[in-house]
C-alpha cells in the first residue's frame, strides 16, 4: 500500500518513521510519501489560505492550491504489487478494490472512523490524505474529486475539534497500517482486540507479578483450564462493554450470545 499525505507541517508526520509503521516502510508492505502543500503554491508568500467567502471567523484553505497537489498525487500510478498479492485483495480475503486511489480528508465534520472503515481502507492500494488547517479546506475540493469518480472519505476521529488534520491522519494511518499483513509482529494481536468481530471491548489483561500492590487477577486465569479462562474473559468483556459502551451492547447480534452471555 502507498499512502501520500499532504500537509503544511511535514515534520508533524515524522512520527511515522518510528516503531512498527517505520519498520513497515523500510522494505515492508507500506510506502509513505509526505508532501508540503506549499510546493504547489506560486506566489512569493506561498499562500495556502484566504478569508471565508460570506464572512466568518478564521481562514479557509484555497481550492486552487489543493487542486494542483491532489491532481498530481491522485494521478500517480499505484505501487507495483508483488505477484503473490495480485488479485487477492487485502487482509480478510475480500475482493480487491483495485489501484484507484482513495482521497481521505480528516475533518471533525466527517463520518466517524471505525474499525470497519480501517479494515476497508487496509484493502486499498493507494490512499491520499489531505490535512487541512484553520477552518478547513474549501468544500469544493471534496466535491470536485467526488464528481470525477474519486472515492472521497471525509473522516473524523471523534467528536472533538483538533487544530488540523495531521493528528487525525496519524491516527487513521496507524489504524490502517497495523492491519496490513506483516506489520504486527504477532498477527493474532488483531484477532481478539476491542472493536473486533465479537462487537465487545477487550477483556482486561494482566502479566507478572501475579500479586501487585495487593491486587490480583481472577484466580481462574492461573487455573490452566482454557475453557474456564475463555468463559471468564468473555464475561469480563461483556461487563466492561455494558459499563463503558452500552451503545455497543445494544448493537450486538442476539444470535451471537449464548445463555451464559445473557446471564453475564
Ligand atoms: N480535524 C480537526 N478535528 C478533527 C477530528 N476530530 N477528526 C478529524 N480531523 C480533524
TrEMBL record:
Classify the main location.
cytoplasm
Query: Covered residues of the complete protein?
Result: 1 to 264 of 484
| Biological function | Specifically methylates guanosine-37 in various tRNAs.
Q: What class of enzyme is it?
A: transferase
Annotated S-adenosyl-L-methionine binding sites: 132, 157-162
Q: What is this protein called?
A: tRNA (guanine-N(1)-)-methyltransferase
Species assigned in the record = Actinomyces slackii
Q: Which GO terms label this protein's molecular function in UniProt? A: acyltransferase activity, transferring groups other than amino-acyl groups; tRNA (guanine(37)-N1)-methyltransferase activity
Q: Which GO terms describe its biological process?
A: tRNA N1-guanine methylation
Designated gene of the protein: trmD
For region Disordered, the annotated ranges are: 74-105
List the GO cellular component terms. cytosol
Catalytic activity annotation: guanosine(37) in tRNA + S-adenosyl-L-methionine = N(1)-methylguanosine(37) in tRNA + S-adenosyl-L-homocysteine + H(+)
Which family, according to the similarity comment?
Belongs to the RNA methyltransferase TrmD family.
Keyword tRNA processing listed? The answer is yes
| Keywords from the UniProt entry | Cytoplasm, Methyltransferase, S-adenosyl-L-methionine, Transferase, tRNA processing
Assembly, per entry: Homodimer.
Source domain of life: Bacteria
Subcellular location, in the record's words?
A: Cytoplasm
EC assignment: 2.1.1.228
Amino acid at each position: 500500500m502507498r499512502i501520500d499525505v499532504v500537509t503544511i507541517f511535514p515534520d508533524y508526520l515524522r512520527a511515522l518513521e518510528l516503531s512498527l509503521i517505520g519498520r513497515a516502510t523500510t522494505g515492508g508492505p507500506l510506502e509513505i510519501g509526505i508532501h508540503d502543500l506549499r510546493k504547489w503554491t506560486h506566489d512569493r508568500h506561498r499562500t495556502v489560505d484566504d478569508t471565508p467567502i460570506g464572512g466568518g471567523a478564521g481562514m479557509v484553505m484555497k481550492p486552487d492550491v489543493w487542486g494542483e497537489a491532489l491532481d498530481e498525487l491522485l494521478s500517480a500510478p499505484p505501487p507495483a504489487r508483488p505477484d503473490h498479492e495480485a488479485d487477492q485483495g487485502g487482509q480478510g480475503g475480500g475482493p480487491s478494490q483495485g489501484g484507484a486511489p482513495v482521497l481521505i480528508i480528516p475533518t471533525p465534520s466527517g463520518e466517524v472512523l471505525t474499525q470497519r472503515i480501517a479494515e476497508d481502507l487496509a484493502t486499498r492500494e493507494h490512499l491520499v490524505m489531505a490535512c487541512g488547517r484553520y477552518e478547513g479546506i474549501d468544500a469544493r475540493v471534496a466535491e470536485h474529486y467526488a464528481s470525477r469518480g474519486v472515492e472521497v472519505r471525509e473522516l473524523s476521529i471523534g467528536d472533538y475539534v483538533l487544530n488540523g488534520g495531521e493528528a487525525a491522519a496519524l491516527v487513521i494511518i496507524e489504524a490502517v497500517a497495523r492491519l496490513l499483513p506483516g506489520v504486527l509482529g504477532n498477527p493474532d494481536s488483531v484477532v481478539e482486540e476491542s472493536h473486533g468481530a465479537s462487537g465487545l471491548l477487550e477483556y482486561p489483561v494482566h502479566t507478572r507479578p501475579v500479586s501487585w500492590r495487593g491486587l490480583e487477577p481472577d484466580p481462574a486465569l492461573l487455573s490452566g483450564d482454557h475453557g474456564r479462562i475463555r468463559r471468564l474473559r468473555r464475561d469480563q468483556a461483556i461487563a466492561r462493554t455494558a459499563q463503558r459502551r452500552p451503545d455497543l451492547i445494544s448493537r450486538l447480534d442476539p444470535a451471537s450470545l449464548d445463555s451464559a452471555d445473557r446471564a453475564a
